[in-house]
Q: What sequence folds into this?
């Protein structure tokens, strides 16, 4: 399988998060041929790992479901999961792409019946819960996974556990002999919708994420709040499983910081404001959220959301970047040290749990990209020198879902223009 | 085997019969065991330390360090200039970096150096002795020389500030550095976890603001006790002196019963390498490190 | 005759920030501060600072010249470098604190009798004489700084510590007579005088 599946009239979309799906669909619905390549076993990206999303506090399920339905119904989009781009050469209108496909060890016959998962005993960290719990080594990535097909973790292939999975499958979907494949393609334009990843909280040493069990990241907190998460939606802190009632949120954890990410990650103020409402939802008036911030960046239409949260008596705001965290040995509570810059009061305040509002860095940081790609000083994708490749969504800038979708639509339109031009030139020849 | 050569800047406190006399003796043993040769820079001068800022001002302080850098490059061209005192290291390295970055500062500095018949054109690397141990000698070789593991002693590794900030040892965290604990463990002893590893002892303000500094020192010693330590180990002369010497005063003023020996990492290594109590400079402790002496005497 | 302070006031009129940028070590970085408060929360002797570093930076921009330069806050800096290692804008806060203190001192408007200032001066005078610190002389100057009677009191209170150091061979009473010193102390003195002269010229202490 090579050139037959693509020509230089094809658009390659790299990354199957909300931005990648949008870019792929917009082009496909204009009649273009699209390949949507996703690194993980499922589409959906990071949005599917949120509990609810601002500003309307809806569950990510609904937005995703609509897009998945459009994808299922559109023959112009070809979805390739577990697929990464290994190399891109050429220029606008004429790219050669090498894709690498990792083996899933489960083929199209899978009905997601779950028998293989029941059969194996081995467990692996559950990526869908940011490693807060474990999942079986034969697993469905998460409830909304697309395709709805199991994955067998490479760690059990070639072991008796792998054989157990194979034996359990009644439809012969388990294929332990699958190998990594390499595919070469010609495409006319590439949209990079590779998204973001949380900044490594271990590097923010004064906050002791690596030392204190009850200091967690905002991503982990999304999973704690989610009824489908590792604690069934209870805000149980990792240190001792006790319910956390007095919760601190530390803003700009790793963002706006010359020692870490230089940029403002733009979504984390809103994410924290949203998460204070998870605390209210879980604990009512008994919960207490304290937001430590430099300044709250809830821009334009989010101002309302901010004002409503400010009215909530369970939420208080301290204008201060926390200097450091220590731990109370007796009860495992993190103790926050700093100075309130409104009044210059020093504090040493204990909380049950600290949530670090970690910054977003481009997922491609550290990844070798084609020479043609243009990056900004924070490694977000600006475009390409020859004008045939585009960044979309949070790969291009730290964006929320709504703005990621807008950015993806814009990128898709530009890709379509490239294809039109290529087609026109070829027709002229 | 030929020895690794370094220009050596001992600093005021690490000479004979001054506050860290004993430290230097143990450094000698460590160098000897690990085939390191420290070549003392002739006629080196004081770095001015941090506290020098009050009277000294910026350029005079830079010039002080620049004189040492100049002497080092004249006498021991090509060798790194090594300090055992964190304040000396900090001052020298800060100066070396600033002179490297600013040609106008270098010009001003040379104008002053001329008065002492010297000039400096850059190029000397100012390093801490611990960097030499970790980066040039390596953990394996340091470990190999251990003949007397220190067994059951529990140490609180006290890194303090200036060995650790703003430069620190490459790859280590400013908030929770590991190398000192690793050195303790390398010597066969136990490093207790405690929360005052990088707390400031008050530094030179121990002299001018004794009550405030002693509060810092009290926190450090108390936490070491609370976490089961029997001794404190440190890489810093001023930390050592402050944390050891003021225990009596804190006891007197605050009714505590502190009596915790405070030793240098190199003293630990000397004993673990089979040196005598005298070689390790243990006779220099104001609060005797009896357990270490006992092991050294075996 | 006008003083250095009057000259500086006249020269920089309404812009204390400009004055700091020109005359204080690393003063050009003050404007980079985003008032996050991390440095303020990092000083070991934080309670003793009337104005935290962060607040001082704000006051500089607000032109509060006297309140800043006459404050004893900067003199509370222990040079622990916590602030520098944590500041999200990479301000060399420690250097700026040292610089502010020194500038105020050189202008002659730093608080009189501030203890750290006294120690800093003694330390410098001690080393500038011979090129090296004479720890015994330093200790004696230190403890007798307020006169003989109070000095005796301090020494009496600390007699165990002092004796301990002597017994441990770490404080040498002979240092009074034959001390550690540099051979080229004359050269060092001249060099320091020159450095001071250049700096004074640059900072407008001399015309
Ligand atoms: C704590 C937190 C809470 C948030 N809450 C909200 C909220 O409530 N509302 C809101 O609007 N936004 C929220 N956001 C922001 C939201 O997560 C992003 O806007 C959204 O994920 C952006 O989607 P995306 O498609 O651009 O990127 P992603 O979701 O990151 O998707 C990128 C996809 O690309 C894939 N990929 C990456 N590299 C490659 C490669 N080399 N090859 C192939 N595939 C690749 C990834 O596997 C992934 O599937 C929150 C963010 C955080 C940190
Ligand atoms: S691989 Fe087989 S057993 Fe496993 S879920 Fe799919 S169909 Fe069921
Ligand atoms: S959005 Fe808020 S928390 Fe996030 S980096 Fe910007 S200011 Fe900081
Ligand atoms: S730091 Fe202290 S010991 Fe080292 S040279 Fe400077 S003043 Fe002397
Ligand atoms: S702990 Fe004390 S002596 Fe050691 S470096 Fe810090 S201030 Fe200096
Ligand atoms: S830490 Fe840096 S940015 Fe923050 S207030 Fe202090 S100087 Fe300003
Ligand atoms: S170096 Fe000075 S200003 Fe900085 S944190 Fe320490 S005491 Fe505060």
A:
């Amino acid at each position: 399988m090579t050139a037959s599946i693509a020509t230089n009239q094809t658009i390659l979309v790299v990354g199957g998060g909300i931005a990648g799906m949008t870019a792929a669909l917009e082009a496909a619905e204009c009649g273009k041929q699209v390949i949507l390549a996703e690194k993980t076993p499922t589409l959906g990206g990071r949005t599917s790992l949120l509990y609810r999303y601002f500003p309307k506090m809806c569950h990510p399920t609904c937005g995703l479901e609509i897009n998945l339905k459009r994808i299922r119904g559109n023959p112009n989009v070809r979805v390739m999961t577990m697929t990464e781009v290994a190399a891109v050469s050429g220029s606008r209108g004429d790219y050669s792409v090498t894709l690498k496909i990792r083996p899933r060890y489960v083929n199209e016959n899978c009905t997601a019946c779950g028998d293989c998962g029941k059969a194996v005993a081995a467990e692996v960290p559950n990526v869908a819960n940011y490693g807060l719990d474990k999942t079986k080594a034969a697993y469905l990535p998460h409830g909304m996974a697309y395709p709805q097909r199991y994955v067998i973790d490479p760690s059990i292939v070639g072991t008796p556990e792998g054989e157990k999975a194979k034996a359990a499958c009644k439809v012969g979907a388990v294929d332990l002999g699958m190998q990594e494949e390499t595919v070469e393609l010609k495409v006319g334009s590439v949209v990079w919708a590779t998204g973001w990843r949380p900044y490594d909280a271990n590097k923010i040493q004064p906050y002791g994420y690596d030392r204190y069990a009850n200091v967690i990241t905002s991503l982990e907190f999304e999973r704690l709040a989610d009824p489908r998460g590792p604690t069934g939606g209870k805000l149980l802190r990792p240190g001792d499983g006790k319910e956390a009632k007095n919760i601190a949120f530390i803003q700009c954890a790793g963002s706006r910081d010359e020692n870490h990410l230089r940029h403002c990650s733009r979504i984390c103020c809103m994410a924290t404001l949203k998460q204070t409402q998870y605390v209210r939802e879980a604990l009512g008036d008994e919960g207490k959220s304290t937001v430590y911030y430099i300044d709250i960046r809830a821009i334009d239409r989010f101002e309302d959301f901010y004002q409503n949260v400010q009215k909530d008596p369970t939420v208080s705001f301290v204008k201060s970047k926390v200097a450091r965290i220590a731990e109370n040995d007796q009860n495992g509570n993190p103790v926050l040290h700093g100075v309130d810059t409104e009044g210059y009061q020093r504090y040493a305040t204990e909380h049950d749990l600290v949530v670090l509002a970690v910054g977003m860095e481009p997922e491609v940081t550290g990844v070798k990209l084609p020479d043609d790609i243009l990056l900004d000083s924070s490694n977000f994708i600006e475009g390409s020198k020859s004008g045939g490749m585009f960044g979309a969504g949070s790969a291009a800038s730290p964006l929320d879902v709504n703005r990621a979708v807008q950015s993806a639509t814009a990128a898709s339109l530009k890709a379509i223009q490239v294809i039109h031009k290529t087609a026109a030139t070829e027709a002229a020849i | 085997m030929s020895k690794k050569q370094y220009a050596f800047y001992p600093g005021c406190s690490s000479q004979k019969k001054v506050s860290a006399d004993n430290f230097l003796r143990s450094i000698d043993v460590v160098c000897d065991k690990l085939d390191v040769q420290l070549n003392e820079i002739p006629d080196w001068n004081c770095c001015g330390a941090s506290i020098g800022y009050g009277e000294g001002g910026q350029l005079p302080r830079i010039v002080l360090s620049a004189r040492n850098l100049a002497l080092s490059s004249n006498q021991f061209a090509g060798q790194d200039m090594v300090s055992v005192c964190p304040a000396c290291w900090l001052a020298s390295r800060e100066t070396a970096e600033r002179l490297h970055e600013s040609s106008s500062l270098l010009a001003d500095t040379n104008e002053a150096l001329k008065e002492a018949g010297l000039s400096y054109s850059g190029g000397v690397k100012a390093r801490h002795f611990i960097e030499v141990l970790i980066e040039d000698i390596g953990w394996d070789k340091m470990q190999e020389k251990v003949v007397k593991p220190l067994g059951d002693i529990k140490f609180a590794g006290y890194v303090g500030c200036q060995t650790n900030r703003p430069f620190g040892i490459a790859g280590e965290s400013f908030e929770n550095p590991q190398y000192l604990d690793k050195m303790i463990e390398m010597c066969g002893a136990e490093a207790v976890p405690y929360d005052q590893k990088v707390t400031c002892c008050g530094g030179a303000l121990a002299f001018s603001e004794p009550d405030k500094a002693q509060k810092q020192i009290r926190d450090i010693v108390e936490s070491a006790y609370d976490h089961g330590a029997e001794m404190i180990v440190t890489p810093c002369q001023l930390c050592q002196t402050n944390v050891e010497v003021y225990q009596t005063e804190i006891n007197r003023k605050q009714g505590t019963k502190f009596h915790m020996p405070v030793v240098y990492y190199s003293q630990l290594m000397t004993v673990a390498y089979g040196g005598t109590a005298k070689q390790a400079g243990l006779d220099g402790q104001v609060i005797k490190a009896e357990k270490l002496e006992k092991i050294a005497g075996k | 005759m006008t003083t250095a302070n009057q000259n500086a006031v006249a020269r920089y009129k309404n812009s204390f920030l400009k004055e700091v940028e020109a005359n204080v070590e690393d003063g050009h970085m003050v404007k980079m501060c985003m008032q996050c408060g991390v440095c303020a929360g990092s000083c070991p002797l934080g309670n003793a600072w009337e104005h935290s570093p962060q607040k001082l930076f704000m006051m500089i921009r607000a032109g509060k010249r006297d309140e800043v330069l006459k404050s004893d806050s900067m003199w509370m800096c222990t040079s622990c470098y916590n602030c520098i290692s944590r500041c999200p804008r990479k301000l060399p806060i420690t250097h700026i604190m040292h610089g502010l203190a020194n500038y105020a001192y050189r202008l002659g408007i730093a608080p009189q009798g501030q203890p750290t200032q006294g120690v800093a001066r003694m330390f410098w005078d001690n080393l500038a004489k011979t090129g090296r610190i004479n720890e015994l002389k330093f200790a004696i100057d230190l403890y007798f700084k307020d006169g003989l009677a109070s000095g005796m009191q301090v020494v009496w209170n600390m007699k165990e510590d002092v004796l301990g150091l002597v017994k441990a061979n770490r404080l040498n009473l002979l240092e009074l007579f034959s001390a550690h010193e540099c051979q080229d102390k004359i050269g060092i003195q001249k060099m320091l005088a020159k450095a001071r002269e250049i700096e004074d010229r640059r900072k407008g202490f001399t015309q």
